[in-house]
Amino acid sequence: MFLKKHALAAGLFSLCLSSASLAASPLGIWKTIDDSSGEAKSYVTIFEDNGKLSGKVTRIIDPAKQDSICDQCQDDLKDQKIQGMTILWDMEKQGSKYDDGKIVDPESGKVYSANMKVLEDGRKLEVRGYIGFSLIGRSQTWERVED
Question: How far is CA 44 from CA 3, 6, 59, 60, 132, in A?
Fold first, then answer.
């Protein structure tokens, strides 16, 4: 009986640990929050693609902007509809954060180096775009969208 109780407790403990590690993952749906205005702009779904993480705009919150295109973007992103566009790619896990990725600002069309870090037990995601060194750039804190 003693062993059964400990086995059950150990099983529940490992289940809790695996749930916590999933919550601390950047995979899932995030509400983007504009760092200047503080307004929610869109939903981005982060997914794994060939061992790296990418993020796609799956919903633009303002109905008047849902058909917006990236007219300032270059190359393959030029004139692509923003809703449905992959705006974040090539993010690799490096310790407690994800780095060496790229992010495009659909409003300016500029592509930046990017990193991101999960905060508050998976409830928030700090996304940073920068040129050159990570110190020179800007960050946004996105909020997880609960299913």
Answer: 46, 42, 7, 9, 25
